[in-house]
Amino acid sequence: MGPTLRQLLINALSIGFLIFLWYVCSTAGWVPRVFLPPPQDVWGALVAGFSTGTLADQTLSTVFSMLIGWFACSLFGVLLGSVIGIWPLARLSLGPVLEIFRPMPPAAIIPLAIAILGLSAEMSLSVIIFGAIWPALLSTVHGFSSIDPRLKEVGRALGISPLAFIWKIALPNATPDIIAGMRLSMVISLVLVVITDMITGQIGLGSLVVLASRTFDMAGLFAGLCLLSLIGLVSNSVLQFAERRLLRYKQ
Description:
Mean pLDDT: 83
CATH architecture of the largest domain: Orthogonal Bundle
Strand content: under 5%
Radius of gyration: 22 Å
Largest sheet: none
Low-confidence stretches: none
Number of strands: 0
Helix content: over 70%
Shape: globular
């Protein structure tokens, strides 16, 4: 059995055990079913939701918002982080500004974003970008600024242009840090999509969870939570696969 198949089997057994424990806790009365519906009820809510198309629309809206926000913050973060990491003057001038905004919780700027942009998709996107840009940005800065000085000496000795040095030497050296930061940004993007959906009431799994809790539809609430977990699992697995493909030269 190969390592990939073995890992998949272990993951499947772990998830199966979790579902079994969930079933036992619900059906044995350890937790009241009104608070913890059994897995079959949640499955029924998923089937009913996808049959009507409502749940599919909400899931696609959440995934689309997450990907747009993640792509935007990754693009801005990698570009700005590359400039800061390569150029010492940019690091000195922009470092204090980044330290001012970096510790600010993303939720703290939601009232300001609402005041400026209203309860709109643009407001949600701005909050996602602000909150999720930091892992991609800071990891890119670290990746480019931690280049071995001997590599810079080799580049100068070979007469490589600055752009060629960045593309052929600096970027491959910083790629592991960049991908690690982008994976964290993906998780934060999903969290912020859910939060902004809860506040704005836009179509998405966040508003679904809030509505289900208000109507005490626990099966629908757990169905939304399961879908959010599945989105996070799939997106992280895709990035892990991309990371292995891009970093094969390091294995």
